Amino acid sequence: METPIAFEELVKSRGSYKDAVGLPPSVYSDPDFFAFEIESVFSSEWLCVGREEQVSEVGDFFSATPAGEPIIVVRNSESEIRAMSSVCPHRGMCVTADLDGIDDQNMLEPTKFLSGNARYFRCPYHWWVFNLDGQLTGAPEMKDTDCFVMEDTSLAKIAVEIWNGFIFVNFDQNADPLGPSLIKLENTVTNYNLSSLKTVDPAVIPDVPFNWKIMIENFMEMYHNSRLHKGIHDWAPSSGAWYSDVEPTDGAMFGFNPSLEIDGGFNPSYKALFPPLPNLSEEERQRVVFAFIPPTLLIGMQADSAFWFTVNPTGPETHELSMAYLFPEEVLEIPLFDELLEAAIRGVGYFNRQDIPTNIASQLGLSSRFANRAHYSWQEAVIPQFNSWLVDRYEKSLKG
Ligand SMILES: [Fe+2]
Hints:
The chain is an alpha+beta fold. It is built from 7 helices and 17 strands. The chain has 2 domains: 7-44 and 179-399, Naphthalene 1,2-dioxygenase Alpha Subunit, Chain A, domain 1; 47-161, Rieske [2Fe-2S] iron-sulphur domain (Rieske Iron-sulfur Protein). Strand 16 and strand 17 form a beta hairpin.
């Protein structure tokens, strides 16, 4: 595959913060580069689409559109999590398209998709019926079509892997498994017991107006914490930040922002609002871990909880952002949980009101004729790590 940007330019962004420069600014806005990136990165990497507890019962399913592909994630009758295309193999209708609540005002709006519990999926168009594994089990008025074989017809299968409760899908059925590439992260975050935590208050922002990579960079780099967030971030200054080394075989990047006192929190009190997670050491209670499983999953881990974001590109200058908290199940039962959660959400909102407009302005600046390819600080060493990961994928796609 070809890229509209010469590889000799892209490769200048591979390396460490000591030598690499920023990616060519057009990677944040060029529609042709976006198409190249979807193919070179998103068609063969593990993409996080949700959490196991979102499909806890047989028949529970949700719809997602990672990199624009409509898919279904479902717990089948054997209680295993499966992923499949939502595209009906008959005429291309999406079997989970939500046709309820359509009126004259909204009938031209983008398709919405169903989530819930089902015994089967029935395409609303011609009523072809698929079981929870995606196998076609019924198709009206097809018996005279001699060449049609029901047994050979199904929704396209998509590879699934679960890591610590996170559900990943891969459009490449032959992709290497994800788990072995996450050993370093796994060993670092064992005490958070991520697989036992429960997702709380998931929210989706459909049209965030900046390139998906800007979101990743902003979440992961700690250089701006003591600057843009001066005041509210003072309990965890950037000066203490450090990142783990990354080898080309590593499937995650992560870093630590130690705090000045134990059990800090991203809210106006600077203190954790909930009991500390049960197995954390004192050192772990005195830092925040930021982790990235490229290209889509961001995880933050703090003394009393964790939070996760998925970043799903929807265009060269837009992405869909999903956000949720993770808490131990027993914490959901504590008195005043909802009130405390509201305070935590308001704390995060304070950060968002600084980060989001900054990212929107950066998108504008990166589209400017004066946009530059600068060097990085050690406090943002994760960005050239991410750039290196990307350039490796771009190279693989270019050199086949
Ligand atoms: Fe920030």
